[in-house]
TrEMBL record:
Keywords: 4Fe-4S, Heme, Iron, Iron-sulfur, Metal-binding, Oxidoreductase. It comes from Caballeronia mineralivorans PML1(12). Residues 12-66, 246-305 form the Nitrite/Sulfite reductase ferredoxin-like domain. The lineage of its organism: Bacteria, Pseudomonadati, Pseudomonadota, Betaproteobacteria, Burkholderiales. Residues 79-222 form the Nitrite/sulphite reductase 4Fe-4S domain. This is Precorrin-3B synthase. It comes from the Bacteria. GO terms for molecular function: 4 iron, 4 sulfur cluster binding; heme binding; metal ion binding; oxidoreductase activity.
């Protein structure tokens, strides 16, 4: 694990296998965030956590506490690679085609054990989709695998599973048992062919025809890649399922989801969440799901989440707003996006999702959000609405709220 510099001192990224952490691990994170950092913890769009404001001189102790809590990698040098994304309901959704957690565990192990793979960029990411009803399908991944059935996975590169006729189709299919070998071949082929400037799969595929890439992959495999995937499309996901109470598997427990306002919570909130459930899962929407909650306690837990300030209803403003670290935490930011989002939360109309970004890197959202406010100066934003061109420029937050109200059907 390592700590990277940020405007508000060190930033410690904690990578969580499929976003999950135990209550005990959450308490350790809260404790070290309070003792060695600013006391604030961010949820990320890769379902990880970040401790902010880590002070000079405390970095080693902080890391050793996290590693001691089982939050580090299994092999040195592999922390940055632990980017295997799953649905927040992986292994829990009774409607999924299969439980993909064992398969993704095997892939995580593969990534950490094979030292050549440690050359991959920290941004390089895989997605394993079991057909759950809640899944982030809009984030482009370097490699994605999606269950076509319990025994067969379709796959693609530098993109997302296709949902609509207009989407690029899957590239091929393999049986479930062949997935680890396929991933191994895909990653080693990438490393074989990538030039130093090719950090992501999309960079390489911009210069290497996909047929050529797949030809190299096939040479590494002892089984044929099925390239005829027919008209396979991924069924839609329902992002609203990240809120509220949902069945967990076929047992007596339920999971309860809520949104962390603007992806940031203090240590006391994280500790309080740990008191509500034995397991937590962070989601790519910067929200949290509490797992293994007894059915009888579910409504009380929803009430406690509300008391803690989390959004438990998908229509609340903080369920529809995201903002990057902004000028409080990032030197690149042209505005204090978090503070501006707090103001917008009080003014915005009753529908519509909004993303505030301090610069074009768009750290808070790897996908297109209905409306994006892109900072151009302190307190000023260009507004993008379902189009690559700005529809209004240099707006204050109040002006942006009025623009949103005018363009909202029920306003
Ligand atoms: S989007 Fe830009 S300003 Fe915001 S955190 Fe990322 S790099 Fe910083």
């Amino acid at each position: 694990m390592r700590i990277v510099p940020a405007r508000d001192a060190g930033l410690c990224r904690i990578r969580l296998a499929w976003g999950e952490l135990s209550a005990a691990q959450a308490r350790v994170i809260a404790e070290v965030a309070r003792a060695f950092g600013s006391g604030f913890i961010d949820a990320t769009n890769r379902a990880n956590l970040q401790i902010r404001g880590v002070r000079e001189g405390s970095q080693e102790t902080l890391i050793s506490r996290l590693v001691g809590a089982g939050l580090g990698p299994t092999t040195p040098g592999s922390d940055d690679l632990r980017n295997v994304m799953l649905s927040p309901l992986a292994g829990l959704d009774p409607h999924a085609l299969l439980d993909v957690t064992p398969l993704s565990s095997a892939l995580l192990d593969q990534l950490q054990r094979d030292t050549r793979l440690h050359q991959l960029s920290p941004k390089f990411a895989l997605m394993v989709d079991g057909g759950e009803r809640l899944a982030m399908l809009d984030h482009p991944h370097d490699v994605w695998l999606s269950a076509g059935s319990a025994e067969r996975f379709v796959f693609g590169l530098a993109g997302c599973p296709p949902r609509f006729e207009s989407d690029a189709p899957a590239l091929g299919a393999v049986s479930r048992v062949h997935v680890p070998a396929l991933v191994d071949a895909l990653l080693h082929t990438f490393l074989d062919l990538a030039l130093p400037q090719h950090t992501r799969m999309r960079d390489l595929l911009a210069t290497c025809p996909i047929e050529e890439f797949l030809g190299h992959v096939q040479d590494k495999l002892s089984f044929p890649l099925a390239q005829d995937v027919g008209n396979w499309r991924r069924p839609p996901s329902n992002a609203r399922l990240r809120f509220g109470v949902h069945p967990q598997g076929t047992g007596d427990s339920v999971c309860v989801g809520a949104q962390v306002p603007l992806g940031r919570m203090d240590a006391a909130t994280l500790s309080a969440l740990a008191d509500l459930a034995p397991r937590l899962r962070m989601t790519p929407w910067q929200s949290v799901m509490l797992l293994d909650v007894p059915v009888a306690d579910a409504q009380a837990v929803v009430g406690q989440l509300t008391t803690l300030g989390l959004a438990t209803n998908p229509d609340e403003p903080f369920a529809r707003l995201i903002a990057c670290a902004g000028s409080q935490g990032c030197a690149k930011s042209l505005a204090d996006t978090k503070a501006d989002a707090q103001l917008l939360a009080r003014l915005m109309p009753s529908t519509g999702d909004v993303h505030l970004s301090g610069c074009a890197r768009s750290c808070a959202a790897a996908h297109r959000v209905e409306t994006t406010l892109m900072a151009v100066a302190p307190g000023r934003y260009d507004l993008y609405h379902q189009a690559p061109e700005a529809v209004a420029r240099h707006l204050t937050i109040e002006q942006a709220a009025r623009w949103l109200a005018r363009s909202t059907p029920d306003a």
